[in-house]
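Before drawing any conclusions, I looked closely at one protein's amino acid sequence and its backbone structure tokens, quoted below without any editing.
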Amino acid sequence: MSETNPMPNGAGTACGSCSLNRAANLKRLGVTMDDWDYVVALAGNPNVGKSTVFNSLTGLRQHTGNWPGKTVSRAEGGFEFAGKRFKLVDLPGTYSLLSTSLDEEIARDFILFGRPDVTLVLVDATRLERNLNLVLQVLEITDRAVVCVNMVDEARRHGMTVDDRQLARDLGVPVIPAAARFGRGIPEVLQAISDVATGKFECRPHRLHNEPPAIRRSLNELVTRIQDMYPDLPNARWVAMRLLAGDDHVHAALRNGDLGSAGMHGATGGRTESGRAV
């Protein structure tokens, strides 16, 4: 990993592609979000540095409220980068998206039904194996994601290194190493978010296909039927697996049409550039 150091006084103007220039192009909008071009969901396990990244991008100190009808806190803000406005929604910290708790339900529903333009998943470099469980679950639901491997400085102190390039190849999405509390990696995270949101980078997420042979035929038939109903759904296989697992929440969403809805759960006002009402 290459870390970015501030340029010395008197250095020349930063080039258009370097970290210094990307950081200069960030405009923190706080909670001033009357309209936006893209919606970014911020996901991760508890204590991986989500609040630090959220504050770095928005300039806020966790402006919090509650999800509609829920007692779980939410935080959202905005930033402008490369001429586009991004709404950032900090999802509850969770270890899973299997919807066995209120936090998991909110995080999963926002990614599944809200269809954010990008989901930024933070992981702890010192606990990478455990954190990747959530990453793989997110990649089952959405094909537009960026992974930020935070706390690489702590990992290095413990003699650990992360091969972010190999991890990116394995996951099929951008992987950015960072030490967010020092601002390292934040410019690269901004660029990756922008590239995925605008389609400059096309994600090809790795998805597990380890279903039991006994259900494979039923699964494939169900996937075909779901794709016929919702041709633009990016996660028909995951939906089919949840249906076969008896997930009542997903079953209800399929029946009432929520899976095909462009509505953004918990967001208000505005419309993304790609046409999603939020």
